[in-house]
C-alpha cells in the first residue's frame, strides 16, 4: 500500500531524496492505540519502512497491542504504555497520531461527539506540548473540524504552536471519493485520485470531481448521488455496524497512508502532495482559518498550501454551503480552549 519510493528510500538511500537536515529516525506515537482504529493503524505503521520506532499509548490495552504488533517481522521496535505513562510514551517522538476518543453510533453526527472528545484531545495535546513540543500532530479524533482548532489553541497557550506541524486527517474522504468515483466510471482507483477540500463532516466535505480523471463524465443525478455518497459515506459504515462504531479499518488504512506521506516529506522526498485540514490562509478572510486543500509536505511539515483551482458551478455551490458550517465548527473548537 505504501509508495514504492518509501521502500526505495530505505533500501537504497539516495542523496536526491534526503535533505541534509532530514532525520531518518522516525519515532511515531499512536494515542488511542487500543481502539478500533488504533489497533489496525498500529499494525499498518509497523509495516511502514520509514517508521523506526512505535510508541503505543491508550488508557486501556496498549501494552497488549504492543506485545502483539511487536512480533511482526519488520525492523521497527514497538513499546506499549499504560494509562499513567503518557509522558514516557511521547519521549523523543517525531510524529503523534491521535485516534483517541469515542466513535459515532447510528443517528449521531460527528459534532455530537464534541462533548466527550474535545477534552480528550485537549489533554493529549497539552501532554504533547510538554513532552514532545516539536512533534507533528495528526488528528483523527472527531469532530476533526473542531478538534484541530482545539489542538492549535492548546499548543498556542503552551507557546509551542507551529502551524506547519498540525494536520487534520481527511484522507478517508479522499480514499472514499477515489474508490466511489472509480466504481461509477469503471476505472482503476489508482487512475482516479480525487482532491477533497473543506473539512471532515457531511456538507463540509467538498470533492472536486471535475479535476479528477473521468470526473467530468459524471453528471446530473449520478453526480448528485456520487457527491452525497462521498459526503455521507461514513454513515453507511455507522449504519452497517449497527451500534458497534464507525469506520475503523478503512480509517486505519487512510491514517497509515497519510502518515507515510508526511514521513516521506519529512525524509526529504519532493512533490509529496495530499489534501489535509491545516491552518490555512485560503478562506481566512471569511473567518475560516483552518481548511483542507492539497498541501505539499516537506522536511518541516506543511511546505506549501495549494489553492483549490477551478471549480464547476456545482462545486462552487458545495463550497459555499461548506464555509458557514466550517466556520461554526472551528469557532466551537477555539472557544473550548
Ligand atoms: N478522521 C476520520 O476520518 C475518522 C474516521 C473514523 C473515525 N474517526 C474518529 O476516530 C476516533 C476513534 O474511533 P475508534 O473507532 O477507534 O473508537 P474506539 O472507541 O474503538 O477507540 C478509541 C480508543 O481511544 C481510547 N481513549 C479514550 N480516551 C483516551 C485518552 N484520554 N487517551 C488515550 N486513549 C484514549 C479508548 O480507550 C479506545 O481504545 C473517534 O472520535 C471517531 O469518530 C475519525
From TrEMBL:
Gene that specifies this protein: MDH1
One Gene Ontology CC term in the entry: mitochondrion
Keyword NAD: yes
Catalysed reactions listed for this entry: (S)-malate + NAD(+) = oxaloacetate + NADH + H(+)
Protein's UniProt name: Malate dehydrogenase
Assembly information from the UniProt record: Homodimer.
Single Gene Ontology BP annotation: tricarboxylic acid cycle
Catalytic residues identified in the record: 200
Stretches assigned to the Lactate/malate dehydrogenase N-terminal domain: 27-168
Keywords, comma-separated and alphabetical: NAD, Oxidoreductase, Tricarboxylic acid cycle
Family: Belongs to the LDH/MDH superfamily. MDH type 1 family.
Amino acid at each position: 500500500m505504501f509508495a514504492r519510493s518509501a521502500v526505495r528510500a530505505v533500501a537504497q538511500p539516495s542523496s536526491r531524496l534526503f535533505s541534509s537536515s532530514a532525520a531518518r529516525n522516525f519515532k511515531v506515537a499512536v494515542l488511542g492505540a487500543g481502539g478500533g482504529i488504533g489497533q489496525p493503524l498500529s499494525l499498518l505503521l509497523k509495516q511502514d519502512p520509514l517508521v523506526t520506532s512505535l510508541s503505543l499509548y491508550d488508557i486501556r490495552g496498549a501494552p497488549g497491542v504492543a506485545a502483539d504488533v511487536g512480533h511482526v517481522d519488520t525492523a521497527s521496535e514497538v513499546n506499549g504504555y499504560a494509562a499513567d505513562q503518557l509522558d514516557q510514551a511521547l519521549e523523543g517522538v517525531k510524529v503523534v497520531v491521535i485516534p483517541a476518543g469515542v466513535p459515532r453510533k447510528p443517528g449521531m453526527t460527528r459534532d455530537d461527539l464534541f462533548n466527550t472528545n474535545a477534552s480528550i484531545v485537549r489533554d493529549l495535546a497539552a501532554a504533547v506540548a510538554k513532552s514532545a513540543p516539536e512533534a507533528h500532530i495528526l488528528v483523527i479524533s472527531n469532530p476533526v473540524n473542531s478538534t484541530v482548532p482545539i489542538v492549535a489553541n492548546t499548543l498556542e497557550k503552551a507557546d509551542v504552536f507551529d502551524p506547519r506541524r498540525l494536520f487534520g486527517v481527511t484522507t478517508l474522504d479522499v480514499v472514499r471519493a477515489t474508490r466511489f468515483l472509480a466504481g461509477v466510471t469503471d476505472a482503476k482507483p489508482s487512475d482516479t485520485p480525487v482532491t477533497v477540500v473543506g473539512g471532515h463532516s457531511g456538507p463540509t466535505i467538498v470533492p472536486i470531481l471535475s479535476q479528477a480523471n473521468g470526473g467530468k463524465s459524471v453528471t446530473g443525478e449520478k453526480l448528485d448521488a456520487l457527491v452525497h455518497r462521498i459526503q455521507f459515506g461514513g454513515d453507511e459504515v455507522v449504519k452497517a455496524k449497527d451500534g458497534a462504531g464507525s469506520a475503523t479499518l478503512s480509517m486505519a488504512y487512510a491514517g497509515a497512508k497519510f502518515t507515510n506521506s508526511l514521513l516521506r516529506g519529512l525524509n526529504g522526498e519532493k512533490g509529496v502532495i495530499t489534501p489535509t485540514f491545516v491552518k490555512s490562509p485560503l478562506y481566512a478572510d471569511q473567518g475560516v482559518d483552518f481548511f483542507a486543500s492539497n498541501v505539499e509536505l516537506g522536511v518541516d511539515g506543511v511546505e506549501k498550501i495549494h489553492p483549490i483551482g477551478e471549480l464547476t458551478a456545482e462545486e462552487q455551490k458545495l463550497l459555499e454551503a461548506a464555509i458557514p458550517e466550517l466556520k461554526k465548527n472551528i469557532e466551537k473548537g477555539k472557544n473550548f480552549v
